[in-house]
Amino acid sequence: MTGYLSVARNIVIKELKLKYKQSLLGFLWSMITPLVFLAIFNFVFSTAFMDIENYSLYVLTGLIFWQFFANATNQTIQSFIRNSNIIKTINIPIFLYPVSSILTEIVGLVISLVPFWVLMYFFGLEFSWHFVLLIPSIALFSMFSYGLSVFLGVLNVYLRDVSILWNTLNPALFYLTPIAYDDSIIPANYLIYLKLNPLYHFFRIFRDILYDNQVPDVRSCVIIISITIIVWGLGKFTFSRLEKGIISNI
Amino acid sequence: MVSSLFQGLKKELFQTFDELKPQIDIKNLSIYYYSFNQGINSFKDYVLKLGFVKPFAKKKILSNINLEVYSGEVLGIVGKNGEGKSSLLKCVSGILKSYEGEISVKGRIAPMLAIGAGIEMELTGMENIKLISSLMGTKKGADKLQEIIEFSELTEEELVRQVKTYSTGMISRLSFSIAISEVPDILLIDEVLAVGDAGFQQKCIERISEIKEEGCTILFVSHGAADVERICSRAICIDQGTIKMDGDVDEVLEYYHSLF
User: Fold this and answer.
1) In a domain, B95, yes or no
2) Of chain A's two ends, which shows fewer C-beta atoms within 10 Å, N or C?
3) Is residue A43's pLDDT more than 90?
4) Which residues from B are below 8 Å from A238, CB to CB?
């Protein structure tokens, strides 16, 4: 177990190095992307959604986690293929590669939270002890992202279209999740469809904690825990069924 | 009194048996390659049947391999391209798990299965040394690091450069140095000596002989008959998915050449 941890740690360090090697702004990129979106949304939507109080904070609290989700799935889906060279030559359990990918993104998220925190204060965030709840929420969100990415990542080993398809669907998913808008603008009879999107519930929780400054209700917690277990199980099941062919196909 | 004597005797006997047991023991091994039944139809079927249909086509690479390698033996493996020599080494090292039969291996394995195994092109030589030795589970330490650097014959300026700027020979020097910095129980070498310059090749062969002297078991895949002759104490020839010949190096090499 400790052996696995040290291997995972080394892969994480490698991935962090690779990510920012030979780039001028390096780590800043994981902040610049959400900031650009923030500026665009402020410019485009703030008049359209005038009824949202403190629109900048509202959008930012969503964008931070969207950025994490988009990066994490994208990186983890590719993790088998990106590491094919090592997988074929060094005997390390294959599941450590997606695990390391997701850990890398968590590190990125945590580091980027520092400047974002400053920015959120600037937008009028008030300190509250509820913020501690972010830790289990981020943990659950990471496990959900991991399960989803492993499911897609294993399929992607056999059918490379999967990652392309995922990148194409990404923007659609973004607009199907209330990030730039509030779900109150959706007619009640369509809201049910919006709630079929698992991300809806996660973002609801993040908003509860950071924007509405309240403890999420038990119902939402149960929902995201169940979603996480189901999706994580799906990833695990797919991986165990298709694992043996991975090395022959990367 | 009598029983303790008996116990001691039994223990000693078992130890002797242990030493007599082969270090690598392969019984009835068949290695498969799982190719994916690619295509819209098979994928659709797979999804529709919720994964309860076999998505893979099993292709046999090697069948019915029986091989015992004893501690300290240097086994040369020869055969045509694509006959499964590399897959055999991958199975022994535990990387490839799609096989049937039994493989039992005693001791720490150092696999050198490809030129530049696990080397990350974007990182520098130094970063790669640290990364790969940690992934391979070898001990690190300043003096060990120095040893690796010295053996690789790379200059300090070269070591802080990204590996993508290296020549193939330099990469193989780097990767060879990392892999054999620590004497393992079993060394697997797959055709990795072919690229270094003559001087480095010579040095590698010498280092392998040194490792051999220390009692390490070596499986050596090569097309270079001279190298096999020089370091191997025994050889096998793999052809058409099975071991066609096992025994004396000269005889096996002769048989191998007669295949062409």
Assistant:
1) yes
2) N
3) no
4) 51
pLDDT(B245) > 90: no
Domain with B87, as residue range(s), is: 71-108+184-258
CA distance B258 to chain A (A): 31
Residue B241 resides in a domain = yes
The CATH number linked to B90 is: 3.40.50.300
CA distances from B136 to A21, B9, B176 (A): 24, 39, 13
Contacts of A242 in chain B (CB under 8 A): 55
Residue B122, min C-alpha distance to chain A (Å): 7
Q: What is the ipTM of this complex?
A: 0.76
Phi and psi at B9, nearest 5°, equal: -60, -40
Q: DSSP secondary structure string, B86-120?
A: HHHHHHHHTS---EEEEEEE-S-EEEE-STTTT--
pLDDT in tens, A194-208: 889 999 999 999 999
What does each C-alpha distance from B138 to B91, B108, B148 come to in angstroms? Answer: 20, 10, 12
Q: What is the pLDDT of residues B15-51, one digit of tens each?
A: 666 667 788 888 888 888 877 766 555 556 666 665 5
Question: Higher pLDDT residue, A214 or A47?
Answer: A214
User: What are the start-end ranges of the E strands in chain B?
Assistant: 24-36, 56-69, 74-79, 99-105, 109-112, 186-190, 217-221, 234-239, 242-247
Q: Could you give the dihedral angle defined by the CA atoms of residues B71, B77, B83 and B85, in that order, rounded to the nearest 10 degrees?
A: 40
Interface test with B, best of A4, A17, A90 (most B CBs within 10 A): A90
Is some CB atom of chain A closer than 8 A to the CB atom of B136?
Answer: yes
As a whole number, mean pLDDT of residues A57-83 equals: 92
Is residue B163 situated within a structural domain? no
Q: Is residue B127 part of a domain?
A: no
Over residues B177-215, the pLDDT tens digits come to 888 777 788 888 887 766 667 777 888 888 888 888 888
Residue type, B33: Y
By C-alpha distance, the chain B residue nearest A237 is B51
Is residue B184 within 8 Å of B145, Cβ to Cβ?
A: no
Say which residue the tokens 């330490």 belong to: B141
CA distance B93 to chain A (A): 7
